Amino acid sequence: MASEESRKFDVVIIGAGAAGLMCAIEAGRRGRKVLLLEKAEKCGKKILISGGGRCNFTNLFAAPDKFISDNPHFCKSALSQYTQSDFIALVEKHRVAYHEKKLGQLFCDGSASEIVALLETECAAHGVIIWRGSGADKVEKEDDHFLIATGGQVLSAKSLVVATGGLSIPKIGANDFAYRVAKAFGLALVPARPGLAPLTFEAADKKRFARLTGISADVSIGYEKTRFRENLLFTHRGLSGPAILQISSFWELGKPITIDFLPDIDLEHILKEKRQPQPRTKVSSYLKDHLASRLVDVLLEEFVDLPELGNCSDKTIREIVKSIKLVKLVPVGTEGYAKAEVTVGGVSTEVLHSKTMECRSVPGLFFIGEAVDVTGFLGGYNFQWAWSSGYVAGQYA
Ligand code: FDA
């Protein structure tokens, strides 16, 4: 058992994911005695599996409008105090090679492990103590300090940072620790739900899509006023791919999503124009020049006899266009936390100072990263939130 003095810290950070590691580096840089507690045997397990093993570590276009929260303004302060350029500078300092894949998404050329290595190197350079395989069991506040129970001993800290993430991917240890701590301190939570997750459908739709398993299409997808232009993938369980993952973070049970399978084409205009010069052309053969043949068959299956263009009335053309460009589907759910890349909701931003991530009602207690009700779009935004929120807490913890 360690001596009493060795169990006293200025800052204890619970969770060595992206946010916790960044916070530890910054608090260490300020000369604070920092302990980073990590339940798993290694740090940054989610970083390691992210971006298909190459970690999409930030996005060139990171900005507040790429985040979902009950308070869309909350993320502004942290994002402006530590920007994507700041993290890119850190990546370059450690000579980690990277590239832009698309839409401003920056990935490692090599492996996500380089990001974890650079964060651990920075932690070591700033004297951060890391206990791996040491989960926090319980925390409480006594006078002006926090008591943290871990593995049979009790640690003390002037500041406590909760960086234990959300509920996504329980298989690698995700859990509700942050929410339990928030509840214990009487802090409000925004109900959590899976985000960036594949969508599931009722039996009839599922059967329809199963025939298309493996087909992808560049679509424009909408839910209420939100729209994304990305790839959609048919799977034997439902719909996936970036377009679906993005819209899933907004979608609410019982409501429809709409899909435009030919977003760049004014189909009504084109079909009407072709009617005269190409009256014998089948509508389906024009569509099959632009979309996978099986997909066209499924989308147009309600048209028993698809006429040649010359025989299409304006009304028929409008109906065909609707079947391709305004496909309305009502998902029945998502594939849940087992498949969701993030958790939407979490510790309410109402209880936190946006400049510091410190709790308004509990001085010295901070929540950062995915544990908080700030969720990024797909594309490196969630890590940017982890870096930014971790950075600011590290300046004040
Ligand atoms: P994170 O979950 O990373 O870390 C929390 C840590 O706390 C974990 O190490 C956990 O073991 C630890 N912990 C939990 N309870 C504890 C306890 N009681 N005591 C001690 N430790 C405890 N984002 C992005 O921007 N680009 C990308 O490429 C991807 N790709 C991606 C792929 C997949 C498959 C997933 C699941 C997610 C992504 N993400 C992503 C999302 C991104 O990984 C996520 O938003 C961040 O990792 C969140 O960082 P945090 O540090 O907040 O939590």
From TrEMBL:
Residue spans crossing the bilayer: none
Domain (RsdA/BaiN/AoA(So)-like insert): residue spans on this chain: 193-342
Entry coiled-coil feature ranges: none
All copies of domain RsdA/BaiN/AoA(So)-like Rossmann fold-like, residue ranges: 10-395
Alphabetic keyword roster: FAD, Flavoprotein
PANTHER family, per the entry: OS12G0638800 PROTEIN
Name assigned to this protein: Aminoacetone oxidase family FAD-binding enzyme
Organism, scientific name: Sneathiella chungangensis
